[in-house]
Write the structure tokens for this entry.
Amino acid sequence: MKHSHLRPVIVGAFALFAALLPYITGNLYYLHVATVIGVYWVLIATLNLLVGFTGQLSVGHVGLLAIGAYAFCLLAGGQGWNPFLALLTGGAICAAIGLVLGLPSLRLPGFYFAMATLAFGLIVSELALAEQWLTNGSVGMPAPSFPTPFDTPWGFYWLVLGIATLITWMTANLARLMWGRAMVALRDSTVAAASVAVPIYMTKLMVFVFSGFTAGISGGLYATSQSYITPDAFIVNLGIYFFVAIIIGGRGVIIGPFIGAAVLAAIPELVGPLAKYGTFFYGFILLVVVLVLPGGFGELITNVASRLRREPQVSTSIEPDLVLLRTAIRVKP
Amino acid sequence: MLLVIVSGLALGGLYGMTALVYNVMYSTSKVLSFGTGQFAMVGGICTAWLVLGLHLPLWLGFLACLASGAVFGWLSELIAVRRIIAASDEHLWVLSTLALSTMVQEAMAIWWGTDPTPFPRVFPQEFAGSFDQKFWLPLILAILMAVGLEQFYRHSMIGKLFIAMSEDSFAARARGVATDRMRSLSYVLAGVLGALSGFAGGQLTFADFALGTALGLSGFIALAVGGIGSSVCALVGGGALGMLTSLTTHYFGAEYQKTIAIGLLILLLVVRPQGLFGTTQVRHV
Amino acid sequence: MINHLEARVVTKRFGGLIAVDNVSLELRPGEVHGLIGPNGSGKTTLLNLISGYYPVDDGSIHVGGEDVTRQSVQDRARLGLARTFQTPKLVLSLSVLDNAMLGGWPDVGSGFLETAFAAPRARREEANIRERASTMLQGVGLGTVMDRRADLLEHTAQRFLEIARALTMRPKFVLLDEPAGGLTEAEIERLGAIIGVIRDSGIGVLLVEHHTDFVFRTCDRVTALNLGRMIAHGSTTAVRYDPEVIRVYLGA
């Protein structure tokens, strides 16, 4: 929705950097971290639409990640399906579950909805342990890999990059076109949204289902990136992490949550022994952001940018142009 | 079978008390705090540490438990609620209480460890089956707490001020009520009550860092079943959830505890969002 | 009356209180119809009943001949009913232009996936609505601040933005809820001129206002309420000199 000539340049430069990353760093470990960032981003990008744009505080998306992961492993591994088909099917399953979950809970006000999604995340992690016949319980299961050329770290990285780019493009389109305005209206003023005929419930539901689909895809990719999944990979804290990445990054922006996702993926990998402090610091950062900077770092960046552009804060003198108005209202295309 | 019923009632007492704690904070701030369950967790761990770890006498552990609840209640109002209420965005308190709750829980996990540890006996008593104190303490205390709160609201000046604030906080402020101080006081009270419930339920739940989230969720389900605002309804909601949990554990095993309880919640929120006893509110444009 | 907006004998109760008591009102295309009454007379409640935010207890609402009594706010908006609010309801984190463009939503036919893939139809609709909205903004006088965030606007500008958004909907009827609140005399003049242009293009305007002078200057017909009941309705002159209206406004 903002017109900036700088932005395509930045995006282009970053895309180039991302595509050439395997050549830039020979270190396979960094490549793995970058791959995990991409995997999380596939989920967070659309969760951002739900949380950051539409304002629905879903804390339990980790449940959908888990279902996507297990579905992928079972279909492509146990049943021998084509991995791409399994990936899409996992996405479809999670979209359907998103529909079933969203139908009742999206009618609820903020706190109740958050609780319902938290509850969903807890149920999934509990069932993952309990339903041993399906999930092997705490033992977990191995994840199949994709056919060549995507079975190498480089190849898999580019697969994730490709999918992440597609998803980012889709969310960017949704954000900058009319649907994006409708979504933000749902977050900031449902009265205004209703007055211009935005279907409140249906819009929320569609965003929720879409975010469910990509969460499922993200789950399958996550499984392959870890090579082996167990129920404790999908603890509720991870769901809070995703949520926090978006809030910290800035609601209603895309770049901000991406940085949040990158930090989220990188911290446990790079920090190692300090990892157990991770959740504490996430809570701390969230608290600071909420108290000081509710718009997240994304808002900080846009504020600084507009300060730099030095917009003159002149008092608006409203001079209607009646002739223009007259012709404009009459025109009926 | 008696054991199943008694443990169901005990759990019900614990959940009901948590619902009461929600109510106390909600009355003055219209905030449903994510950290509601953490008071019990902090109180329980504090007592276990002092009594079993440092071998201090039980009454000291009890006082420290209440004090810890009071401090955390006061802090949570100050940090997570006070500034947020003034802001226009109502979603923010969900985030701030979630953040604070996460911090408290993780800090406990780091300092105390993640294994649930035993809680000291309150009264000298050999393990007595269905009549063991670990069942009766939470149940009796829950009833006492509900009755006490009702008396407090009806007969004490501060209690009546809380009610005034819950009905119309603007009007209360216009009439000279120090709403900030009252809210802080209600959170301190909530913290004390929460810690007390942790003390009463400690033998049932053990001193466990993860208790806070689980209790917060269960207490919320109890609240949703009974409806916000009424002490009796909170207990009824808690009792219903407690019995359901106990019965499902008995027949299906402990693995489905959460699933069934949460299924109940979602069903209820869909069918009757205002709870079994609550009333619908008129929205104002 | 096929192309009118009508409220027929509507009643609304809140608990034991009757907020609107058997009120009928008819808004014609190309007229400015004033709705006046002291505080608590039920003006805003009636507006909320007509636009669909409250359900009626008795009576019916008709937009362009269609019975919309059971229809949602959104359905009525799609039939050409636009409104502004007593306190401006804007999307504060979006720009002025984005807010006005929201008024184009009823014309958006592109679905969710279509938009996600930036289909030609979605892009075309975006361009059309952008042009329409920016023209409306210039028309009401906000052309210079189109890229400013809505929460940085002054009160008057926010009110005019709501009007621009309503006009972007290409409505048949516009309901204005106390649009002159907080405006200076000069700004009220401009508001009156804008309302005049809206009326001249065939749109029916329902003007709820406290400034009775402004109402009598601007309106063709007036309905007066007191304590939820209609006490007078008809031409501006007739209502202005109605003895009951004078009594209610000048005290008993």
